[in-house]
Every structure is written in C-alpha cells, then in structure tokens.
Amino acid sequence: MYAIVRAGGRQEKVSVGDVLTIDKVSAEVAAGDTVEFPALLLVDGSAVTTDADALGKAVVRAEVMGATKGPKIVIQKYKNKTGYKKRQGHRQPLTQVKITAIDA
C-alpha cells in the first residue's frame, strides 16, 4: 500500500517505513513528535482511491526524526570593470520524517 501526500509544498509518494526529507515543518515540532499529512491518492493493491470523501478520512502519520539542512548553495554576483563582487551562501532548513501509518 502506498499513498501520494502533500508534504512541504510538494507531492510525495510514500509507504510505511519510508524516510522523507521535506521542507521545515514548523519551529514547535521536535524530534519524536507525530505529524499528519493529507492524502491525495491511496493505492492498495489494485484498488485506487481518488474519491474526495474517502480521502478526507484518510490520514498519513509520520514521526519527526530531526532537523537537517540542505546542500550549500553559493550565490555570486560580479560586474566587470567596476570592482563589484558579492558572494552569499544559503542552506535550506529541512525536516526528516519517517512514515509510520497510512490509515484509510
């Protein structure tokens, strides 16, 4: 059984036991807490659930494993013949979650 969920501004295909790295959930959530994601599609064998009423009851639960950071992104600006150089870096804050249950 797997589900398509909306997590961190994107849609992810998940099944029980998967570990996802998504955008930061919120500042109040700590490691070990449980978060819920809305299901957009459920597939159980050959049965595919796309009905809005049935999906309204479906919940995908995940346990927060911890906060991480994405890869370093370097932003460089340069203007020729003027002596202007600017360098800036960025690391996106992310959250790792482990899918614990898919309740239909």
From TrEMBL:
HAMAP family noted in UniProt: Ribosomal_bL21 (MF_01363)
Database matches in InterPro entries: bL21-like, bL21-like_sf, Ribosomal_bL21, Ribosomal_bL21_CS
Origin: domain of life: Bacteria
PROSITE patterns from the UniProt entry: RIBOSOMAL_L21
Quaternary context: Part of the 50S ribosomal subunit. Contacts protein L20.
Gene: rplU
GO BP: translation
Pfam families associated with the record: Ribosomal_L21p (PF00829)
Single GO MF descriptor: rRNA binding
Family designation: Belongs to the bacterial ribosomal protein bL21 family.
Record-linked NCBIfam families: L21
Function in brief: This protein binds to 23S rRNA in the presence of protein L20.
Keyword list, A-Z: Ribonucleoprotein, Ribosomal protein, RNA-binding, rRNA-binding
Protein name: Large ribosomal subunit protein bL21
Record GO cellular component, one term: ribosome
Source lineage: Bacteria, Bacillati, Actinomycetota, Actinomycetes, Micrococcales
